[in-house]
């Protein structure tokens, strides 16, 4: 009976991804609009991007506070009226602040686009910044900051940023309790005035926005002269910490949060794609070397993974895990042990084939549907790239040999190049 | 509206197919009718530990994850008090690989000491990571134990105590498998770019020969009505006081579930909801509040939570919550307010129909709850709720004797006060 299950069914490898077409148009004033039309539901997601990130703000907290407070009252509507309207239409409006931009996202049923566009335009162009909303927001935010700081993983993540980039570097600078006293409402208003001109927007639309999209967008975001913005703020070279091992003790911790990593480069570097493959093998999927060794063989953790994060002027390669506190050193040794194996021995053919197939399936998954495709496209645009980047990755994945991967590992997985941050026991 | 086709195999396995032509992918979802409520009080956390072991391989297929990744897929699982759910998402052209893998592990597992030993450790780390080494992390353990005295909902899926996981033996594991893992105790749902007839053939081919198993009739002790208000105060190393109030309400399948759900939305779904506006923005007593219903298969809980702002006294915070409950009981929602939360629910149901995996999980659950057709009646059920029904649910649920209250205070770690 059970012989029946010995033989696996045949399967096909994915060798091609169909990228959804991107409609590129401009509004009357030249504001670029990128639209991905697809999906079975009459739903629209709109991302409106402004050059209003943490780097432009210079001081932690200013950029995100500005974006969040814009939704807490405009010249015509109170905070309460704004939330009533969003909820009544069953929509979502929120903002996300990154290093170099802030993105306002609207998700709604397409038939409510006219109302939601009017509202988001009001939020972006006529925020009132009421004093009492500012006070309340900062108080809540501070509580949240303190609460998050109780978690070993947050302690480790904050320290990791400072360690890899430098405590005074725009990418490494961390929010501290004292910043809550340092910032002022005037700074917030100034930041809004300089960074949120509607004509500085870039707009990304995904879903089934219907045929009234362009006139609607023109009505709200197509006026005023689009000015070429200078996105290239000066970002100095990274200044990693001098010590390679930083340990922070937290009383009563049962686990230790580990962050191990090194500064890297972004996706323009020729080795960025090779490193994607190496990273997947190391810790980028469930069957990775790190998961197999640290979780499935040794049982030291519930989860471990590695990630590559590109940044406009830098990048980072990191490993992240919460491990049994008493096994911290054992876990670190196991992680570096996997580095050594990848440097010395080519990945066996069957593992390599599996990783290639997995990565292709993962790509198919990431490019499935308009929403996630639009997110990927927006990120590519930041770096002045388009889907060609992923076509190159597909070609590389198909061709790369185990020996090439070993050589990449030899260059990039030297334990002396990595910083270790541990928080907990 | 989710279209589907349904067929039951001779061995009792129910098969549901939903065709979604907009994706190149497919989700193969297997929902087993077993959860933490099927555990005995001295062996808790077992359904979840077992979920981990389902990835430990079989005699025919030593690694489950390998073949999934080999065909470009991904897989995972979750356990709740009512269900254990497994899913594989693969490119639609490789759907048969998922059938092969799921059928093989439903047929028989390779129970090994090694696999059990490792997964015990992994689950213990999960226990620490999610519940013990997390500010406020042990609340699910405390509140369930306070609200339930008899029903197995009194422990969370991770288990009542780490020692239960440590002591799990291989024989327990084997018994658990043959008791609950059977074609006649599961729903297989396939959602994605597939032809339903082809899927029914694959189901017959791979699952058809698995024998029907003797699944014992479930006979759980039902929780008697709570007759007195219950309180528990604990001190922990946390930055701010926290309050959680839970009230017994009903089942997911009860007619008044929809009124219960909307009632919780009136309190806490969206920034305009009552608790956010009143308790956070106007009175500034809390930094965070929430309200939700469990929607369990046996009578569950209506939960209200709040994290206090510094310098706010617990009695004042609690009184403010109670005041909101009383106001709802006395006045109910306005027509506008009720319409607002209905709109939100209905548009969330539409957003939820975007992703094939989400649809697969929901179809499975509705089938297991007894009537899959209800999945498409949800919008109507919500729309039909009246302000008076909200009031009557609020009246019956928000009774002081029906309430268990947890005060979670900053202080010395790990001391419990009665």
Describe the structure.
The complex is a heterodimer of chains A (425) and B (418). With 425 residues, chain A is α+β, with helices and mostly antiparallel strands. Chain A has two domains: 23-221, Cytochrome Bc1 Complex, Chain A, domain 1, CATH 3.30.830.10; 245-424, Cytochrome Bc1 Complex, Chain A, domain 1 (2-Layer Sandwich), CATH 3.30.830.10. In chain A, 43% of the residues lie in helices and 19% in strands. Chain A has 16 helices and eleven strands. Chain A has helices spanning 54-57, 62-70, 79-88, 113-125, 131-148, 152-165, 179-182, 185-195, 213-221, 272-283, 289-297, 328-344, 349-366, 370-382, 388-399, 402-412; strands spanning 23-26, 32-37, 43-50, 92-97, 102-109, 202-207, 245-249, 255-263, 301-311, 314-324, 419-424. A six-stranded mixed beta sheet of chain A has the order 1-2-6-3-5-4, sandwiched between helices. A five-stranded mixed beta sheet of chain A has the order 7-11-8-10-9, sandwiched between helices. In chain A, strand 9 (301-311) and strand 10 form a beta hairpin. In chain A, helix 2 (62-70) crosses helix 8, helix 4 (113-125) packs parallel to helix 9 (213-221) and helix 11 runs antiparallel to helix 12. The longest helix of chain A has 18 residues, at 131-148. The mean pLDDT of chain A is 94. With 418 residues, chain B is of the alpha+beta class. Chain B has two domains: 5-207, Metalloenzyme, LuxS/M16 peptidase-like (Cytochrome Bc1 Complex, Chain A, domain 1), CATH 3.30.830; 230-417, Cytochrome Bc1 Complex, Chain A, domain 1 (2-Layer Sandwich). In chain B, 41% of the residues lie in helices and 19% in strands. Chain B contains 15 helices and twelve strands. Chain B has helices at 46-53, 65-70, 95-107, 113-132, 139-147, 162-166, 170-180, 196-207, 257-268, 274-282, 314-331, 335-352, 356-368, 378-383, 387-397, and strands at residues 5-8, 14-19, 25-32, 74-79, 84-91, 186-192, 230-236, 242-248, 286-293, 301-308, 403-410, 415-417. A six-stranded mixed beta sheet of chain B has the order 1-2-6-3-5-4, sandwiched between helices. Chain B has a six-stranded mixed beta sheet with strand order 9-10-8-11-7-12, sandwiched between helices. In chain B, helix 3 runs parallel beside helix 8 (196-207), helix 9 crosses helix 15 (387-397) and helix 10 packs antiparallel against helix 11 (314-331). The mean pLDDT of chain B is 95. At the A-B interface, helix 3, strand 5, helix 5, helix 11 and strand 10 of A face helix 2, strand 5, helix 3, helix 4 and helix 10 of B. Chain B: Belongs to the peptidase M16 family. Chain B: Keywords: Hydrolase, Metalloprotease, Protease, Zinc. Chain B: Residues 14-129 form the Peptidase M16 N-terminal domain. Chain B: One of its GO terms (biological process) is proteolysis. Chain B: GO terms for molecular function: metal ion binding; metallopeptidase activity.
């Amino acid at each position: 009976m059970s012989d029946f299950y010995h033989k696996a069914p045949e399967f096909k490898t994915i060798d091609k991804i169909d990228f959804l077409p991107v409609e590129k148009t401009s509004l009357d004033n030249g504001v670029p609009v990128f639209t991905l039309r697809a999906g079975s539901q009459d739903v629209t997601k709109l991302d409106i991007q402004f050059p209003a990130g943490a780097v432009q703000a210079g001081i932690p907290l200013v950029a995100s506070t500005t974006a969040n407070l814009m939704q807490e009252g405009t010249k015509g509507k109170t905070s309460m009226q704004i939330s009533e309207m969003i909820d009544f239409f069953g929509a979502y409006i929120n903002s996300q602040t990154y290093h170099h931009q802030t993105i306002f996202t609207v998700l709604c049923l397409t038939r409510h686009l006219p109302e939601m566009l009017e509202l988001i335009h009001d939020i972006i162009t006529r925020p009132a910044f009421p004093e009492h909303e500012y006070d309340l927001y900062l108080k809540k935010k501070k509580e949240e900051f303190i609460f998050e700081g109780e978690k070993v993983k947050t302690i480790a993540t904050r320290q990791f940023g400072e360690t890899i980039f430098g405590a005074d570097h725009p990418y490494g600078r961390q929010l501290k309790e004292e910043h809550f006293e340092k910032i002022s409402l005037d700074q917030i208003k100034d930041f809004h005035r300089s960074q949120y001109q509607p004509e500085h927007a870039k707009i990304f639309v995904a879903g089934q926005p219907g045929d009234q999209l362009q006139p609607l967008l023109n009505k709200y975001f197509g006026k005023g002269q689009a000015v070429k913005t200078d996105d290239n703020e000066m970002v100095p070279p990274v200044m990693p910490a001098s010590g390679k091992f930083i340990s922070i003790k937290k009383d009563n911790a049962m686990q230790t949060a580990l962050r191990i990593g090194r500064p890297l480069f972004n996706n323009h570097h020729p080795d960025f794609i090779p490193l994607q493959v190496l990273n997947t093998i190391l810790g980028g999927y469930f069957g990775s070397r790190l998961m197999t060794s640290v979780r499935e063989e040794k049982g030291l953790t519930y989860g471990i993974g590695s990630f590559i994060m590109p940044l406009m002027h830098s990048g980072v390669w990191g490993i992240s895990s919460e491990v049994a506190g008493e096994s911290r050193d054992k876990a670190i040794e196991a992680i570096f042990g996997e580095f050594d194996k990848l440097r010395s021995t080519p990945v066996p053919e069957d593992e390599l084939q599996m990783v290639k197939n997995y990565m292709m399936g993962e790509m198919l998954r990431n490019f499935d549907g308009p929403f996630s495709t639009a997110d990927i496209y927006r990120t590519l645009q930041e770096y002045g790239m388009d889907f060609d980047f992923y076509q190159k990755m597909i070609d590389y994945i198909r061709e790369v040999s185990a020996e090439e991967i070993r050589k990449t590992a030899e260059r990039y997985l030297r334990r002396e190049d990595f910083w270790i941050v541990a928080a907990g026991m | 509206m989710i279209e589907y086709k349904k067929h039951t195999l001779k061995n009792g396995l129910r098969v549901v197919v939903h065709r979604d032509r907009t994706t190149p992918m497919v989700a193969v979802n297997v929902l087993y009718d077993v959860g933490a409520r099927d555990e005995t009080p001295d062996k808790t956390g077992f359904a979840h530990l077992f979920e981990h072991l389902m990835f430990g391989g079989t005699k025919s297929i030593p690694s489950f994850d390998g073949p999934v990744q080999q065909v470009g897929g991904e897989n995972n699982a979750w356990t709740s008090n009512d269900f254990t759910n497994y899913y594989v998402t693969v490119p639609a052209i490789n759907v048969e690989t998922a059938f092969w893998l799921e059928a093989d592990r439903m047929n028989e597992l390779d129970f090994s000491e090694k696999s059990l030993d490792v997964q015990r450790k992994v689950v213990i780390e999960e226990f620490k990571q999610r519940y013990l080494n997390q500010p406020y992390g042990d609340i699910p353990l405390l509140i369930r134990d306070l609200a339930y005295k008899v029903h197995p909902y009194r422990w969370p899926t991770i288990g009542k105590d780490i020692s239960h996981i440590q002591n799990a033996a291989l024989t327990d594991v084997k018994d658990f498998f043959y008791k609950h893992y059977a074609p006649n105790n599961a729903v297989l749902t396939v959602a994605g770019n597939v032809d339903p007839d082809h899927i029914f053939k694959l189901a017959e081919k791979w699952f058809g020969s698995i024998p029907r198993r003797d699944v014992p009739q479930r006979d759980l002790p039902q929780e008697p009505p709570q007759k007195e208000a219950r309180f528990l105060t604990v001190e922990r190393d946390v930055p701010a006081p926290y309050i959680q109030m839970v009230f017994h309400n009903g089942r997911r399948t009860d007619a008044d579930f929809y009124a219960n759900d909307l009632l919780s939305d009136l309190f806490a779904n969206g920034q305009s909801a009552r608790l956010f506006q009143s308790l956070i923005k106007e009175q500034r007593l809390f930094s965070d509040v929430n309200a939700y219903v469990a929607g369990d298969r046996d009578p569950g809980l209506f939960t209200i939570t709040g994290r206090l702002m510094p310098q706010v006294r617990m009695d004042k915070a609690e009184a403010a919550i109670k005041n909101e409950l009383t106001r709802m009981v006395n006045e109910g929602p306005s027509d506008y307010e009720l319409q607002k939360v209905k709109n939100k629910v209905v548009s969330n149901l539409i957003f939820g129909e975007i992703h094939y995996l989400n649809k697969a999980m929901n179809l499975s659950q509705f089938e297991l709850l007894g009537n899959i057709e209800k999945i498409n009646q949800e919008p109507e059920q919500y729309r039909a709720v009246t302000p008076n029904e909200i009031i009557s649910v609020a009246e019956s649920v928000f009774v002081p004797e029906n309430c268990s209250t947890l005060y979670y205070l900053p202080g010395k770690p790990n001391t419990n006060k009665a």
